[in-house]
Amino acid sequence: MHNNETYDNEKLLLNAKMPESIERGAYTNCMLISHTQEEFLMDFLMSSPSNGIVVARLITSPGHIKRMLKALQDNVKVYEKNFSKITPAKEPELISFKPK
Question: CA 23, CA 15: separation in Å to the nearest integer?
């Protein structure tokens, strides 16, 4: 066991440092996903009618993306149980970004 890790009820808890540049978060209203056999790439954007900017990029393995998907689904269920049903946002008719 590494000195930053402790076991609690057979679950691994990791103490992670959060850099200030990430701590404040980034607003995103668009996500582009691509993949290869070895990894998934997710670009999170803040877009407006005239332009968009990538605010974060995540790269992860197919196995981990499955765990992330399950965690998101579980959290949506808890949210909807505690607050209210989430209505999906309308999908844009067409999104096309050209790298600058």
Answer: 15
In the three-class reduction of DSSP (H, G, I as helix; E, B as strand; rest coil), residue 12 is classed as: strand
Residue 73 structure tokens: 């689904």
Compute the mean pLDDT over every residue in the chain, rounded to the nearest whole number.
86
Range among 19-23, 28-32, 62-66, 92-96 rated most confident: 62-66
Q: Which of 62, 57, 63 is nearest to 44 (CA)?
A: 57
Q: Write down the pTM of the prediction.
A: 0.73
Q: Tokens for 92? A: 């844009």
* Distance (Å, whole) CA 44 – CA 84: 25
Cα–Cα distance for residue pair 37/23, rounded to 1 Å: 31
